[in-house]
Amino acid sequence: MNIPKIPYFIFIFSSFQLTILVALITQVKTTAENIDQIENQNQTMEKNTAKIEGQEIEGLIKKIGILEKEIETTKSEQEKIKKDIENSQKDIWDKLSIISTFVSSVILVMIGGIFTFLFQWKEIKRQTDESVKQLATKKETIRLQELEAIIKLLPLLSSKDEKQQEMAILSMKILASTKVAIEFASFISSQGTNEAVAKIANISEDSDEDYKLAENELNTIFNKYLSAVVLIFPEEKSDDKRNNKNSFCAFYITNDGYLISAYKSIVNQTNTSYKVLNIDDGQEYNAKLIASNKELQISVFKIEESVLYSIPISKNKPFENTQILFMGLTNENTIRVSSIGKIYKLDSRDLWYERNPKNNYRGTTGSPVLNTKGEVVGVHQAAVLGKKNQGWASRVDTTIKYLNTELNISI
């Protein structure tokens, strides 16, 4: 059998188709595999998606549960807050009610207090006005009593009897006042009035004002004698003149420069040269020791210069209960009437006195002890040991003969 011949181009074409077919089959197979793979991937993705969606849904459900719980909690808290607010509002109203009641009470009390204060103020003002009127009336009454007392006592004050003058001043102190009595004593200025002023000073222990009035008047009366009282000290120990433990008081007894001091002022001293210091103006003078007498407890000095002031010496014997005063150095380093007292004891050479405790000046050893005439009755020596407010002085009436005859000093 003859097989027909296939043309060559047909064979080539068939081979080409076969190749294409094989390629298509391969492509189809590859595609099918890819499709399977894609489907597998899609299925995996669907599974994963479903899984993820399930997980997300579960998470959402949990979150929703949590949110629901939070909402419930929030609602509970809101209810609690609401109740608290309601309770707070109730408490506030209760408190406001209590406060309003308290404030009302306070306001009522304040109003009552204001009315009470106004009433009391008016009452106090009325009483004050009445007191002022009564005081003015009392002052006028006292003034009238003073005038009546002065009128009644004028005959005694104008009397030449010094004892009557003294009694008149003392009576005026009782019936009128200390100030009025001292003013009249200053106006009349006699031994009787001086005696009265000294007694007022001594009986005024409980009244500083009365004592000062009397003391100032005595310093005025005896002011001219203050310059006659000086300090005296050894010449070689004059560095600290006012505070020197070796300085003493002395006083002029004549205008030609004779001085008297206590015998104590020259004890343990070997020289005869001294310095005299005038406290008032600070002037210094050279002084010589003229004589000393241990028995009479005096020492006598002399300066060459003349002096303006000296103190007269009493030639009469002093008496017990006589008012006395003495001058000396004060705590302020001035000379003034430094103590006021009265004689309570006498012997042939000395006198003892009690002084007013209101005055306790220092540095009075050698000071003049005066009576109310302004005469020297003694030379102050020292305080009495163991006796408060008591001192002793040597009598000068017993030294006059010694001064006249032994020293030829005319007194």
Question: What is the topological layout?
Answer:
Blueprint: H1 8-157, H2 162-175, H3 178-188, H4 191-203, H5 208-221, H6 223-226, E1 229-234, E2 248-252, E3 258-262, E4 273-277, E5 284-293, E6 298-303, E7 323-329, E8 335-346, E9 350-355, E10 368-371, E11 376-383, E12 390-395, H7 400-406
Antiparallel strand pairs: 1-2, 1-4, 2-3, 3-6, 4-5, 5-6, 7-8, 7-10, 8-9, 9-12, 10-11, 11-12
Question: Could you describe the 3D structure shown?
Answer:
The structure is a single chain. The chain is α+β, with helices and mostly antiparallel strands and 411 residues long. Among the domains are: 141-221, no CATH class; 224-406, Thrombin, subunit H (Beta Barrel). The protein is built from seven helices and twelve strands. The strands form two sheets. It has a six-stranded antiparallel beta barrel with strand order 1-2-3-6-5-4. A six-stranded antiparallel beta barrel has the order 7-8-9-12-11-10. A hairpin with a 5-residue loop joins strand 2 and strand 3. Helix 2 (162-175) packs parallel to helix 4. The model is unreliable at 8-13 (pLDDT under 50).
List keywords for this structure.
alpha+beta, 6-stranded antiparallel β-barrel, 12 strands
Give the radius of gyration: 64 Å
The profile of the biggest β sheet is: 6 strands, antiparallel, barrel
Strand order in the largest sheet: 1-2-3-6-5-4
In round numbers, the mean pLDDT is 79
Please state roughly what percent of the residues sit in beta strands, choosing from under 5%, 5-15%, 15-25%, 25-35%, 35-45% or over 45%.
Answer: 15-25%
The strand count comes to 12
CATH class assignment of the domain at 224-406: Mainly Beta
Kindly report how far apart the N and C termini lie: 218 Å
Query: How does CATH name the architecture of the domain at 224-406?
Result: Beta Barrel
Shape label = elongated
